[in-house]
Structure to design on (416 residues):
C-alpha cells in the first residue's frame, strides 16, 4: 500500500505541475496534498498510517486535476471583449466599514463572555481570557447571539475584499487591504480561535489570485516577493503557535513542548485521522450533502454541528511521539454524503467546474459570478486539509455579501 501511495503521489505531481505554475485551483489543491503526502512519508517513523485512506484522498485530488484536464480539452470560451474597471472611490469607505464591522465580533464576544476590554492591557489577563473563552467553547456553554454571528460575516468578507483590491489601489488603500487581516488575527490571539485567522489569510490569498486573473495581472515570483512570502508564512505560524500557548493560560517550557507536539498533530494529523476512519468506516445511509453543507443542515435541524465538528480524537503518533487530532478533512463529509464512488465523482465535477469558471473569468464572461465562484472554490481547496469549507453558515453568507460588493466595486463595460 505504501508503494501505491507513492505512485499516486508521483502521478498527481506529473498531472498537476502546469496548474501549480499557473496557480489554478487544481494546482493549489495538488500542492496542499503533495506537501501533506511527502511530509507524512518523511515522518513515517513517527506518524501511524495504514495508507488505505491516504490512497483514497490522493486519488480524489488526482481525479479533481483530471476533471480540470478534461474541461481544458473541450471548453475554450471566446473573449467577450468587455473591459473591467475598479471603482477606486468606493474602495476606502468599503474597507473601513468592513474592518469596523469585523472588529465588532471579537470585541462584542469578549463582553458577552463577561470580560472587560481592560483585560487587553494585561498579558496575564489576556491569557486567562483565552483560557476561559476556549473552555466555554469546548464545554458547549459558549455565549453568542444573532448580532455576534452577523458581524462574524464581516470578519471573512473583509479579507476577501482586501485581497482583491490590493493590487489595484494606492499605498494608503493597500495598508487598509492588509489591515483586513487584523480582525481574524485579533480573534486568534484573544479567543484562541485559530481557524478564523487561517480562514482570513486563505480568503485574502484566494481573492488576490482572483483579482490577478480578472485583470490579467501577472504573478511573478521574484526573489523579493518570495522573501516577503516566506516571512509572512513564518509570522503566520508564530501567531498560530502563540494563540495555542495563550489558550493554556500559562507560559513555561513544559507548555511550549506540549504545544509543539499539538502543532505537529494539527499540521499533519488530518491524513492520519481520515486514514484510520476510512479503514474502519461502515457505510450507512447517505447524507446527500448535509455533512458537506452542515452550516445549512444544522440551521434547518437536519444535522447537529458540535464544536470541533467531530468528537472522535485519535492519537496520530508512534515511537515516542504523541499527538491527538480530530481533523478529518473535506473527504470524510464527502464520503458520508455520497459514498466513496460518489465522492470521487464529485471531485471530478469540481475539477471541471473550477476550470470552466477560471477560463470564463479570464474571458470576461459572467465576471462577478465567476469571481465569487472562484473565491468559493479556492476557499474549499485551501481548507480541504481541515474540513468542508461549506460547513459554516457564516462562510456561506459571506459569499452573498462578497458577490454584492464585487458588483459595487467594479464596472464592466461591454464592447461597442
Amino acid at each position: 500500500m505504501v508503494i501505491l501511495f507513492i505512485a499516486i503521489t508521483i502521478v498527481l505531481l506529473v498531472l498537476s505541475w502546469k496548474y501549480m505554475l499557473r496557480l489554478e485551483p487544481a494546482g493549489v489543491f495538488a500542492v496542499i496534498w503533495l506537501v501533506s503526502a511527502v511530509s507524512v512519508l518523511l515522518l513515517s517513523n513517527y506518524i501511524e498510517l495504514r495508507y488505505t485512506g491516504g490512497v483514497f484522498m490522493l486519488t480524489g485530488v488526482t481525479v479533481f486535476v483530471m476533471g480540470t484536464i478534461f474541461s481544458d480539452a473541450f471548453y475554450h470560451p471566446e473573449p467577450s471583449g468587455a473591459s473591467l474597471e475598479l471603482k477606486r472611490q468606493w474602495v476606502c469607505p468599503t474597507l473601513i466599514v468592513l474592518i469596523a464591522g469585523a472588529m465588532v465580533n471579537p470585541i462584542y464576544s469578549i463582553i458577552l463572555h463577561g470580560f472587560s476590554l481592560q483585560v487587553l492591557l494585561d498579558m496575564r489577563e489576556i491569557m486567562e481570557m483565552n483560557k476561559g473563552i476556549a473552555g466555554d467553547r469546548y464545554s458547549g456553554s459558549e455565549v453568542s447571539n444573532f448580532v455576534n454571528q452577523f458581524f462574524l460575516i464581516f470578519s471573512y468578507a473583509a479579507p476577501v475584499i482586501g485581497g482583491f483590491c490590493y493590487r489595484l489601489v494606492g499605498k494608503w488603500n493597500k495598508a487598509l487591504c492588509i489591515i483586513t487581516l487584523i480582525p481574524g488575527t485579533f480573534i486568534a490571539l484573544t479567543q484562541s480561535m485559530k481557524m478564523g485567522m487561517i480562514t482570513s489569510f486563505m480568503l485574502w490569498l484566494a481573492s488576490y489570485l482572483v483579482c490577478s486573473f480578472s485583470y490579467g495581472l501577472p504573478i511573478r515570483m521574484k526573489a523579493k516577493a518570495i522573501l516577503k512570502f516566506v516571512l509572512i508564512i513564518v509570522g503566520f505560524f508564530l501567531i498560530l503557535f502563540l494563540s495555542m500557548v495563550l489558550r493554556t493560560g500559562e507560559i513555561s517550557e513544559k507548555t511550549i513542548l506540549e504545544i509543539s507536539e499539538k502543532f505537529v498533530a494539527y499540521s499533519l494529523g488530518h491524513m492520519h485521522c481520515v486514514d484510520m476512519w476510512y479503514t474502519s468506516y461502515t457505510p450507512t445511509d447517505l447524507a446527500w450533502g448535509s455533512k458537506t453543507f452542515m452550516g445549512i443542515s444544522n440551521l434547518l435541524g437536519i444535522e447537529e454541528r458540535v464544536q470541533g465538528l467531530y468528537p472522535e480524537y485519535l492519537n496520530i503518533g508512534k515511537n515516542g511521539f504523541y499527538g491527538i487530532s480530530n481533523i478529518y478533512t473535506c473527504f470524510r463529509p464527502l464520503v458520508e454524503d455520497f459514498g466513496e464512488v460518489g465522492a470521487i465523482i464529485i471531485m471530478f465535477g469540481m475539477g471541471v467546474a473550477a476550470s470552466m469558471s477560471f477560463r470564463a473569468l479570464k474571458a470576461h464572461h459572467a465576471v462577478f459570478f465567476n469571481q465569487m465562484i472562484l473565491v468559493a472554490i479556492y476557499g474549499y481547496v485551501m481548507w480541504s486539509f481541515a474540513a468542508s469549507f461549506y460547513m459554516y453558515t457564516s462562510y456561506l453568507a459571506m459569499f452573498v455579501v462578497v458577490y454584492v460588493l464585487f458588483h459595487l466595486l467594479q464596472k464592466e463595460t461591454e464592447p461597442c
Notes: The mean pLDDT is 83. Strands lie at 83-86, 314-315, 324-325, 410-413. The CA atoms of residues 214 and 369 lie 12 Å apart.
